[in-house]
Amino acid sequence: MARTPLATAAAAPREAGIDAVEDFIRRRKKATINDVANLARVSKKTVSRVINNSPSVKPDTRDQVNAIIARIGFRPDPQARGLAFRKSFLIGLIYDNPNAQYIVNMQTGALDGLRGTGTELVVHPCDRLADSFVDDIREFIEVQRLAGVILLPPIADDRRLLALMDDLDIPYIRVTARPGERNDPPIRTAQIVSRDREGCAEAAEHLVSLGHRRIGFIQGNLQYPSAHERRLGFDEGLARHGITIPPEFDMPGDYSFESGIAAAKKLLALPQRPTAIIACNDQMAAGAYHAAYEAGLTIPADLTIVGFDDADVATRIFPPLTTVRLPTRDMARTAADSLMNGEMNDDTSIVFQAKLMIRGSSGPAPKT
Fold first, then answer.
1. Please, which pLDDT band fits residue 188 given cuts at 50, 70 and 90?
2. 93, 150 Cβ separation under 8 angstroms
3. Mean pLDDT of the region 322-346
4. Would strands 172-176 and 215-218 be described as parallel, antiparallel, or unpaired?
5. N or C: fewer beta carbons within 10 Å in the chain?
6. Which of 364, 361, 348, 258 is nearest to 310 (CA)?
7. How many CB atoms lie under 10 A from the CB of residue 149?
């Protein structure tokens, strides 16, 4: 894994030769935390962290904010500041994800990171499509008085939720397959990034190396950034060899076992069926196994299948599934550990590589 700075420190508070701080002082206005943030050109959250001596603020940013505070005579509200310290010893794991194994891996990893710290994990499922989505999470965080939050995909990319985190001034880390700088506009937060795209490109190269040219694809849930990242990677890997996925080989899916069965049945019923299928996760790949069995096909002699995640099911079906391993447990452990140690700020990214695990479900393309 690697740490990557994503932004530079805020600029000094000068515009067109005018000292904005002196102008503010001349107006004799009572200073607020919002004034400090505007003059220092940082977020209100950053100012609050400086006031509360958070270790997650860069030294130059801390000095800049403290200089502004001293010049304009800002005095933090003792009552409001006290609320910031009345936190519980709880970290929240918030998710809206139908993949039970993914959630279990994330939960286990977060518990690994918190072990021995005296801080406990509170797991909170939510419904991002509900009208009360943001209000429900606000209530959860305020009632539990959380010390920090880990946000899992796809809600980790929901700007309504990110705005809420900033409003509550709570430390949080996003887990995502799409780096914040690749969003429009960019998302600048602490983040754990998985390289799904590169993993799928490697899987595509693997299939081509085995002689496969007719390759079917089962998409993930398109509401998840991971589904788009994985498709982009797969397309890139095939494009290096002049191969594209024809429309009839491109099937929708939603990351569920049932959608894998339905998509694979359609692919295998084509007059000229694919010799290989790649599914955007292992649950759908397992569904493709089911459809192949019903069609009387042998894996991998008649059909190669590749998945993504390296979930437990990958080694429990026969033959064992070739899949792209995503180190979800390590990602969650790092997120929890970083929250506890205050090691991350809004300009920090920790990247985890995906890795192709070649097993018995992949074989040479059958001669036709």
1. confident
2. yes
3. 88
4. unpaired
5. C
6. 361
7. 27
Considering only CA atoms, give the Rg of the chain: 24
Calpha distance 6→341 (Å, rounded): 20
For 17, residues 6+ apart whose C-beta sits below 8 A from its C-beta are none
**CA–CA separation, 288 and 278 (whole Å):** 9
* Neighbouring-strand partners of residue 122: 92
DSSP assignment of 102-117:
HHHHHHHHHHHHHTTT
Both structure tokens of 318: 């026969």
Q: What is the pLDDT of residues 214-261, one digit of tens each?
A: 999 999 999 888 999 999 999 999 999 999 999 999 999 999 999 999
Tokens 């891996």 locate to: 105
Query: Residue 35's pLDDT is what?
Result: 86
How many other CB atoms are there within 10 angstroms of residue 74's CB atom?
A: 18
Beta bridge partners of 18: 15
Q: How far apart are CA 314 and CA 331, in angstroms?
A: 20
pLDDT digits (tens, 9 = 90+) for 13-59: 444 344 777 777 777 677 888 888 888 888 877 887 787 766 667 88
Contact at 8 Å (CB) between 173 and 335? yes
Which residue in the block uniquely carries the two structure tokens 């700007």? 159
Do the Cβ atoms of 349 and 4 come closer than 8 Å? Answer: yes
The C-alpha angle with vertex 108 and arms to 103 and 112, in degrees rounded to 5, equals 145
